[in-house]
Amino acid sequence: MTDHVVRLYAVALAVLVLFLTWAAVAARPWAPAAAEQDPRVAALERREARLRQRSERVERQVARRFARYERRLRERRREIAAVRVDNASAAASLPASPPATAPSVGVVSLPPVTSSSSS
Fold first, then answer.
1. How many angstroms separate the CA atoms of 98 and 47, rounded?
2. Which end of the chain is more exposed for a tag (fewer CB within 10 A), N or C?
3. pTM of the prediction?
């Protein structure tokens, strides 16, 4: 194949065969039609649909519970903030007391509690 034109035609033909093969494989002529579908696959699809519906119900329930939790948490934080404000105002109204002194610490050396009578 020393002729460049022949090489060009050979490459073009090879690319054409490649794309035709690709199109034939992409069309999947061996795939079963919907009417010929395996009953096990149909059962799996029904189960998948049921599980999808159930998961949506569970997600809605979790969202409702989380919203209720957040609402209660906001209320509880407001209550805690109110108690802190009350405590701060009560502490501010008390007379200031001098700081308590720490008790002194003494070191005592005593003989050991246990003794051995063996020699």
1. 74
2. C
3. 0.44
